[in-house]
Design goal:
Length: about 210
């Protein structure tokens, strides 16, 4: 069964949210330097690359990464084509067959240059949260850095998705993925105090 890696590579000089911690990997001890193994170290944000948001990210009283139910991040998922959209709301999804869909991944292809943080992204319209929750959706994923506009202060989509029990997976790499049904596995790290966590996200055909 083929595995489709939908994670963005964690690499030095990768684009990060403006003002966030730059990603840095260094080999701190090497065989050449006299040790028996190579050992690396990393400095990174909890929102580096493909990642999940914990409610604590935008709600001081919200759950941390360690408290989240891992079942939300593994299971059947539907990839839907949203290329060319400036926003994703009820109008864009109301005619889709979402019966039994618990995880939905939006392919927008809006992040066109992987070496540069995007200037603008298609965002999730807040009212979509209630609509998707009513269909039984429990996770949404996007191939851009946020579900809200980049200049948003109050993060209404984050807030309402959380209110409706929908988890958030951001910065996916869906360029080579055809729309359709897959099995998603995107498990966060067991960070006891984490407001987010990088994931290695993959898809498999069910």
């Amino acid at each position: 069964m083929p595995i489709y890696d939908i994670s963005r590579k964690l690499r030095n000089n990768m684009p990060v949210w403006p003002g966030d911690t730059p990603f840095q990997y260094t080999v701190s001890s090497t065989e050449e330097g006299g040790t028996t193994v190579n050992v690396g170290s990393m400095v990174l944000s909890t929102h580096s690359g493909t990642h999940v948001d914990a409610p604590f990210h935008f709600d001081h009283n919200g759950k941390r990464i360690i408290d989240l139910d891992l079942d939300h991040y593994a299971g059947l998922a539907k990839v839907v084509d949203m290329t060319g959209r400036e926003q994703i709301g009820i109008e864009e999804v109301q005619d889709m067959e979402l019966e039994g869909v618990k995880r939905i991944l939006f392919k927008t292809l809006a992040w066109t240059n992987p070496d540069k943080f995007p200037d603008k992204i298609p965002h999730i319209e807040p009212e979509l949260a209630s609509f998707l929750a009513g269909k039984g959706v429990r996770l949404i994923g996007v191939d851009v850095p946020s579900v809200d506009p980049l200049d948003s202060i109050n993060l209404p989509a984050h807030q309402l998705l959380h209110e409706k029990g929908i988890h958030i997976l951001e910065s996916l790499q869906l360029d080579e993925i055809e729309p359709g049904d897959y099995e998603l596995i995107a498990l966060p790290l067991p960070l006891a105090e984490g407001d987010g966590s990088p994931v290695r996200a993959i898809l498999r055909r069910p």
